[in-house]
Design goal:
The chain is α+β, with helices and mostly antiparallel strands. It has one domain (2-78): Glutaredoxin, CATH 3.40.30. The chain has helices at residues 13-29, 42-48, 69-78; strands at residues 2-8, 31-37, 54-57, 62-64. A four-stranded mixed beta sheet has the order 2-1-3-4, covered by helices on one side. The relative contact order is 0.26.
Length: 81
């Protein structure tokens, strides 16, 4: 299992693409996703508005922006429980 916190903003096409990538590997890696809408709080918005989408992994590492597939798969492997 891999736990990922996914920071996104509604209407963000890059976020939609990142979510598709997550959903495409959800079963294979048993990905558990916690979605966080950054527009739900001013603090989250200020923190992530220039970085979304953001995948935050159990080990504290992140991938953000235009997420590359190779980096994504490496992080999935590194964070398997």
């Amino acid at each position: 299992m891999v736990r990922i916190t996914f920071y996104y903003k509604p209407g963000c096409w890059i976020c939609d693409t990142a979510e598709e990538m997550l959903n495409g590997q959800k079963e294979k890696y048993d990905i558990r996703i916690t979605k966080v809408d950054i527009t739900s709080s001013d603090e989250l918005y200020e923190t992530y508005r220039f970085d979304i989408p953001v995948f935050e992994f159990k080990d504290g590492s992140t991938l953000h922006g235009a997420i590359k597939r190779k980096a994504f798969f490496r992080k999935l492997e590194e964070n398997r429980e």
